[in-house]
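hi!! sorry for the late reply, been swamped w classes. u asked for the two structures so here they r. pasted raw, havent cleaned anything up. first the sequence of the first protein and right below it the tokens
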Amino acid sequence: MSSIVIMGVAGCGKSSLGVAVAQQLGLPIVEGDDFHSASSLAKMKRGVALNDADRAGWLKVLCTRLQDRPSGMVLTCSALKRTYRDQLRAAMPSLRFVFLDISSENATRRVAERAASHFFSSKLVESQFATLEEPSGEEGVLSVDATLPLVDLQARVCDWVIQSSPIIPSNKALQESV
């Protein structure tokens, strides 16, 4: 089984979908936000956008996490630029991405709603859209509408993973083998 990155801007639902997909596929979940440096977290809390240099060490750690789980995992990570995704792909060549596509308005609203419980300032949403290089046309990417119900997103992503990975048996095959 290859690993999957659930990607997109802040507020798109990476964490919620990542947990749901990991649970259904029986894979470990790694929350990319847990690996930001203290200085990057402080910067984001102050409403200052991260730059490539800020993200370099973070991406290295995430690459190591991917390599430490060759049997597969679900990673939540913004992966906003193609160069970031390519760095992750270099660490795990069979890596696939699920891009949660969302409008700036919806992302800003969602981030503002969670402001009390999260380090990310809603002031930074626009900077994420300015940095975002959508993965259209990249191999191994599924784009989904982030505003769909979580249960629908989970089903769509898991179906895509199962259909495109011969190593994971379908639920039907699992039932027949029992």
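now the second protein. again sequence first, tokens right under
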Amino acid sequence: MNGPSLYIYETFSSIQGESTHAGLPCFFIRLAECNLRCSYCDTKRAQTREHAVRATPDELAQRAAASGLNLVEITGGEPMLQKDGVIQLSERLLADRRRVLIETNGSCDLSVLPPGVMRIIDFKTPSSGEHARMFEPNFSALRPSDEVKFVLSDERDYRFALDTIARFRLNLQTENILFSPVFGRLKADELAAWMLRDKPKARLNLQLHKYIWDPSREGV
């Protein structure tokens, strides 16, 4: 078993709940520890290493293979806090011909990731309390396959997202811009009405897994 060990909160098979891949069966690798404390975080137990176990990239690749699923998402926590291990894990999964997603909070440099990794990058909004922590070069050098997600609690967040799209010309870099209402805070129909009014180059992104299962349930 090769590679540095990673701090893992959980691994599980589920339905992709967010992103342009929503609805697809996916194997999830959730890493422990995060450098941000967003107000709407729904994975607080993964913010630290307290509940973590350790596994090597080889072990995790074997778990992915055993799942029988071709789509694998590395999430957190914040995966890029364990950069070296994540790079090796990504390379191993890509070598196994798996489609690899990484979901990241937008605060870390993503240029070091292997080219084959599809990046889902949050741009934190004011209600998160962490919008000043973004690593802005990420948003000036997007690839067409990248996805930028705005998690929205209210109309202030929505306006911030529109301004950010214009500021970084995000819609000229990628077609995958996602507006995700905070579950239980912003109604989907209210956000949809704003989008129909303003016609942003973005798609409504609901957390599908929270409609399938209990919203507080882990491992789905």
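hope this helps!! also noticed smth abt the second:
The mean pLDDT is 94.
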